[in-house]
Amino acid sequence: MARAPAITEAALREAALSHLARFAATEAGLRRVLGNRIHRWARAVGAEGMDPDAIATAAAAARAQAAAIAARLVQAGAVDDAAFATARARRLLASGRSQRATLAHLAAKGITGELARETLRQEDMPGELEAAVTLCRKRRLGPFAAAEPEAELRRKWLATLARAGFGGEVARKALALPRAEAEALLANRP
């Protein structure tokens, strides 16, 4: 069986740069990726019979190195949480995600609540109504439905928008828009 390579600072830096070359990441996300790499290494050398205390010591040192590498990449500008949050929020809102769902997604990626809320307040960010209308178009609800709905179907549409994180007022307004107005709202986005 081949022996697992040592987890060095150079190997962690290379793993971080390789990840950033393929994916946009936050500082917390990059630390998580490097932490997973360290965990896999520890599991591999544990299976080879390395002393568990030595593994724990080496893994702790590697986690400290990983945090330092992530911090240096933030200082160098290779990792920018604000730019990540702006790009991801714009994409999510434009695809029909509610602000509530977008905030949850950004929090899961390691963006602070304050930065996420500040990002959503930017002027050029799609609004909640626009996101709800986008979801209506995707699901063929409200103004994009083939026929006028009965009361039961309308309740189902409201439930769909509620599950997606839209408030009742925004959901009702999106469903009540005439098709031409809904299309104009979506056509005017930047």
Main beta sheet, described?
A: none
Helix-strand category:
mainly alpha
- Helices and strands, in N-to-C order? HHHHHHHHHH
Assess the beta-strand content as a share of residues. Answer: under 5%
Number of separate domains: 3
Low-pLDDT runs? none
Q: Indicate the overall shape.
A: elongated
How many extended strands?
Answer: 0
Global Rg: 23 Å
What's the end-to-end separation, in Å? 57 Å
Compute the number of helices: 10
Summarize model confidence as the mean pLDDT.
Answer: 91
**Which percent range fits the helix content?**
over 70%
Can you offer a commentary on this structure?
The chain has helices spanning 9-22, 27-47, 52-76, 81-94, 99-108, 113-120, 128-139, 151-163, 168-176, 179-187. α1 packs across α3 (52-76) and α4 runs antiparallel to α5. The longest helix has 25 residues, at 52-76. The protein is built from ten helices and no strands. It is elongated. The model has no long low-confidence stretch (mean pLDDT 91). The protein has three domains: 9-79, no CATH class; 81-124; 127-190, no CATH class. It is mainly α.
Reconstruct the topology from this structure.
Elements: H1 9-22, H2 27-47, H3 52-76, H4 81-94, H5 99-108, H6 113-120, H7 128-139, H8 151-163, H9 168-176, H10 179-187
Write a concise synopsis of the structure shown.
With 190 residues, this protein is an all-alpha fold. It has helices at 9-22, 27-47, 52-76, 81-94, 99-108, 113-120, 128-139, 151-163, 168-176, 179-187.
